[in-house]
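User: Predict the complex.
Assistant: Input components as received:
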Amino acid sequence: MTISDNGFSATRRLILKGAAAVALIGLGNIALGFAPVFAAANDKYPEDAFKAKSDADAIKSLYGKTAEPSDKVKLDAPEIAENGTVVPISVSTTLADVTSISFLVSENPNALAASYKIPAGTLPSVANRLKMAKTSNVIAIVEAGGKLYSATKEVKVTVGGCGG
Amino acid sequence: MASTIRVRATSSGDTTEVQALIQHPMDSGFVKDAKGETIPPHFIQELTFEYDGKSVFVADWGAAVSKDPYVKFSFKGGKKGDDLKISWVDNKGATDTTTAKIQ
């Protein structure tokens, strides 16, 4: 009686061990499956801000505050862009403690085009090339010392870069 | 495969100027092809420049950045012959990394 009892519980223990192992493997798989999502969350790619339709919504989503115009933000963009697919735009500023610079194109389907993190030691000056669907205001946002400053310039586009 | 990233990093005085050109379609998801079918969005979301184990520049990009994107910035420090590491990841999870020598 006792022997058979022992035998029974031993089998049971084996089964339990097996179940535990399977459960652990299962958890491992789930953790691996979610790893890229966590990585993205850590790097904080501002998905919502890029999905925002209007410039105001994008700025709000990205920074949670509003920007005030400043002549210390220098936005360099052409008066007229013949080709909306490649519009060279650059921003520089004399403001100190700059932590971030963003580019928005108001009339694009999604206003936010690019956002750059500026760590300490990196100069607050960025040049890039953006697509513009049509004639629109281009807004440069500079985050300096926890405040937002902006510069705006209208760029006339003769051939759009975002529509078919 | 050849790298999609071309970088020129030039040190002068106490700053290093970095110019990068990346081969990528940067499809916005708003453009239709010849058959009238929408080309799905495919664009670089994050581009990181690392020097001496630290990020010196991080770009978060949307679909409105031009095809074969170009970016220019400068940072303080950086010596000739040192390595600058550049990597990107796009919205489909594809990624590329390269290391450039500062000139």
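Helices of chain A lie at 2-43, 47-51, 55-63.
Let me know if you want any component modeled separately.
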